[in-house]
Amino acid sequence: MDFFDRFAIPHPSPVIYASMVAIGLTVIAIIAGLTYFKKWGYLWREWLTTVDHKRIGIMYLISALLMLFRGGVDAIMLRAQLATPEAKLLDAQHYNEIFSTHGVVMILFMAMPFIMALMNFVVPLQIGARDVAFPRLNALSFWLFFMGAMLFNISFVIGGSPDAGWTSYFPLAGNEFSESVGTNYYMIAIQIAGIGTLMTGINFMTTILKMRTPGMTLMKMPMFTWSSLVANVIIVFAFPVLTVALALGTMDRLFGTHFFTTDAGGLDMLWANLFWVWGHPEVYILILPSFGIFSEIISTFAKRNLYGYKSMVWSMVVIAGYSFLVWAHHFFTMGQGALTNSIFSITTMAIAVPTGVKIFNWLFTLYKGKIEITTPMLYAIHFIPLFTIGGVTGVMLAMSAADYQYHNTMFLVAHFHNVIIPGVVYAMLAGLTYYWPKMFGFMLNERIGKWTVWLLSIGFLLAFMPMYITGLDGQARRMYTYSESTGYGPWNMASFIGAGIMAIGFALIVYNIYYSIRYASRDIGSDPWDARTLEWATHTPVPEYNFAISPQVASIEPFWDSKKKGQELFKGSYEKIHMPNNSGIPFIMGCIFFAWGFSFVFGIWVPLILTTIGIFVCMALRSFEIDHGHYISVDEIEETETKLRGAN
Amino acid sequence: MRFKWSILAIVFTVITVLSGCDRLLVLDPKGPQAKTQADDIIMTIWIMAFIVLVVFALLVYMLVKYRASKQSKDYEPPHIEGSKLVEAICIGVPIIIVTFLSIMSVKSNYEVEATPKGYENQKPLVVYASSSDWKWHFSYPEENIETVNYLYIPADRPIEFKLYSYGPITSFWIPQLGGQKYAMSDMVTTLHLAADEPGEFMGRNANFSGKGFAENTFDVKAMSQAEYDEWVQEVKETAKPLSEKKFDQLLEPGHLGRSTYNGTHLKFSPPPSAENGGHEHNSTKADKEDMNHADHENMEHEDMNMDDMNE
Amino acid sequence: MKIDNSLPLEYSTEENSLKVLGFWIFLGAEIMLFGTLFATYFTLVDRTAGGPDSAELFEIAPVLIETFLLLASSFTIGLGIHAMRLGRKKAMMAFFGITLLLGLGFLSVEIYDFVMYVHEGATIQTSAFTSILFTTLGTHGAHVTLGFFWGLFIILQVKKRGITPQNANKAFIFSLYWHFLDVVWIFIFSFIYLKGMM
């Protein structure tokens, strides 16, 4: 029995038991449903073994939406606890666990896969490619991310959640002060997902650099592809730092090393340095593709080309460079002296310049346009002012002397939500709405969509603006309670109400999906938004091979020019197309990684060794396998093309 | 639509007004350091408000003027690549603003890291502030007394806090006297504060440190030098001595009320120094700061190496 | 499968050239990985907590042998690739075999070195310094171990299937990896060992 004791939750509560039951029932329901409708084979053939970038994108999307709601429930619980002074809804331990998982889930398991979803679906289509450079590696990336996310989530019901914050600063996250296995979950789940992300970075860099359609030079790439390229370069150079940091943290917790401990020479701020050397570029990995999405959307619905294309590209490159030079602004208060603080203060503020260029370019894209306010455009229009507020508060935080007052307060919390929600979340929701017809062949309801945007923005302002004020009034972040005499009560109540309004907004998205599945028209053609870039030049639904003939490109907006100036995109005749084969190995490897991670979290060494061997066996099998993929014959292409053209 | 925009406008006005209201702790400074910081904050709020307004105005103008509904059906928006002049302005003006802010930032940095302005010729009172789960210990080496969870200081005199931790990283923060600084278990950091006038202030640990973090606060009271001397005298006469055993009890995780002791823990449980090897912190107070500084420069240097690898 | 005969065999198909570029990018990530380990090492090198420091621990003889073995193996893998380009299967396999044997020799000396460290009272748990020392060296050693099996599989495949475009591509990428490990070792040798012994 002792063996099983370790799996118990160290700080149980009725909510957790209820969740266990709910998770159990859901799993049973899914298994029963799949069996009843005889969908196991379909699931395996069409999804679990797929290497198609479009399907992988959709799987990322589903995971991201699921995680959005997991993280969102966390957020509501946090705001509910803080809504009134000295509330008893959650105790300190649970509050700590919830804000820790809220941060990790939202950044790494919601925002990242959301970006990956759009990148996977859109980038190959935008550059006129048949798939990514390494389709099977792409599937493996997804399954590693997915298994990492699942591993992180089961911490809630098996063994206990991490409770040292999403930044997991040592020594608090060390064995001495965080005894449960929660932080092990943090270290290992993020490690697994992070390896997947690193592989995605390599994959997409190669794809974008080598697989562009004829005529598409680097400076003719669509802006989203450019932003993805830059983001993937950052991934490749930032994620190895996280890999090392997490490995060292894992060793401190499980093998008794002394990297970040308080004794034997350990250096606690080393973790903070390593974490933020990855962590700061990480936020640019999130925001740059978001900028890319907004660039596409604003240009599409202003019915104009993007203003200042070159400066858009250069500003992203400069931001990417700077992103590696600012990490110490996350701990100006460490006591590194005025000189160091001054340097990092200046580099941080310098980022405002290229970011400002982007904001002005978007504004000038509207100039002399013919602006149509659709749901994606409404997101973009709300993004510009809200993100500007977030951006300028960032400049305020960059003033290192003043940061001594902002640091660790709700002001900071308000700032980063103020950039991430209107920046990343709006971009992802806008991208979701914008690309939904390409993904699924029908549009989301515009009326409900616009309601969503307004609810989110109003809720957002109500939830986060008060935090700027309580921050300046001395409310530290991560406090699970406060006394009435502090006067924070009404502000936090406003935040809670705002969070509630946002929750309604998010619920509306789900309702919108349901509503549109039932009632939306299926007859929308392949270009419902009258868009400008290549992804809209192919059919809806997109055939497996994306483009029957590789498009010939001569400008930044080839599809627009083909519509307006009659430039021919698809020259030549059909040829047989080479496509990769599906494979079960990525999924199986993902499962083995899950078991590996689980054994590692609990330090159960025999399965750990077995699964490690399993992982290497999978790699060896792959090495020996001969898989040249398959060809789609000209007849098949003709058949598909005729059918799809008929459907339009 | 108008209605929705006016809601936004109202929300903003409310926020601007409230930010200007100086009852917020950080904007109600009682010492020179907090004053520097509050001035910076107010100044940047104005500059930032201006930038936000420019962006708002441009956005509203574009939206009102170039809505599809306001244009003829066959209007075709032109193809505009971009203009060198406009882009130069979009880069130039932010650079000017950032340069201005940088100068301000650097100047303030050196101010808050030095003895508070106007107090340069006074000898600072040195207080060792150390945190343990979830308490603050204040040692007054000159007076040879120690308090837990409350801090009495003389007003009109610079205070030099030496910060360290018996556990997780904490952050020592008295918003009305000045910004925070980390207390860590393997090095001592220095924070310069001063109170311009007598008064009672809120102090807390601002850095998350586990279960008892929310209640990890302390009371600060600034008083005249005479009152302070009187208090020290009283403590010396009435308080019990702080033994090593007693101190170990105090370090146990948990919450405690206020308490006061004769003698400090600095003798038997000295602040972090050379124990970790390599880092030879000098035990004299004056040198310690320099050594800390050197350590950090060292660390920064290594990080720079890492960045070299990026390129 | 389109084969472009104007290019070297390892680049001859589109898939092959994608793989080579992808691997170079991967090596970029590896540089960051080892760069981070080095930076951590330099931060922690003096934090010995009363345990042995680098001057006490390091000995020149085994390190020189390791360096010699690995540098020699980098040379032989180059000969292996040269033989592959000339289409000489036997010679290629032989050079790959020698490379792997040299790699194995390197690993044996490294393991011997580790055992010596432990005997001198420096385990991974002794101090921050020993933790990062074992981790940095161990990461490199693990890479060599992985490379050993990878190279072995390539030899087996070349034996079975000959020098095909796929095998040539794998062998070439493997050689990049092996050279990279050599470069990392040169950094370890110069900045960890030589600097530590001074």
Q: What's this, in brief?
A:
The complex is a heterotrimer of chains A (648), B (311) and C (198). Chain B has helices spanning 2-20, 32-65, 84-112, 225-238, 244-251, 285-310, and strands at residues 125-132, 135-140, 145-148, 150-154, 158-165, 170-174, 178-183, 189-194, 199-205, 217-223, 240-241, 259-262.
What features would you highlight for this structure?
heterotrimer, A: 648 residues, mainly alpha, Cytochrome C Oxidase, Chain A, two-stranded antiparallel sheet, 21 helices, globular, C: 198 residues, Four Helix Bundle (Hemerythrin (Met), subunit A), 6 helices, oxidoreductase (chain C), transmembrane (chain C)
**Rg value of chain A:** 25 Å
Q: Using the 3D structure, state the CATH architecture of the domain at 1-9 and 52-286 in chain A.
A: Up-down Bundle
User: Which segments of chain A are poorly predicted (pLDDT under 50) over 5 or more consecutive residues?
Assistant: none
Which structural class best describes the helix and strand composition of chain C? mainly alpha
Number of alpha- plus pi-helical segments of chain C: 6
Question: Taking all residues together, what is the mean pLDDT of chain C?
Answer: 90
Query: Gap between N and C termini of chain C, in Å?
Result: 56 Å
| Count of runs of 4 or more consecutive helical residues of chain A | 21
Topology-level CATH name of the domain at 1-9 and 52-286 in chain A: Cytochrome C Oxidase, Chain A
Query: Sheet bearing the most strands of chain A, described?
Result: 2 strands, antiparallel
- The average pLDDT of chain A is 92
Widest β-sheet, arrangement of strands of chain A: 1-2
Oligomer: heterotrimer
Query: Globular, elongated, flat, extended or rod-shaped: what is the shape of chain C?
Result: elongated
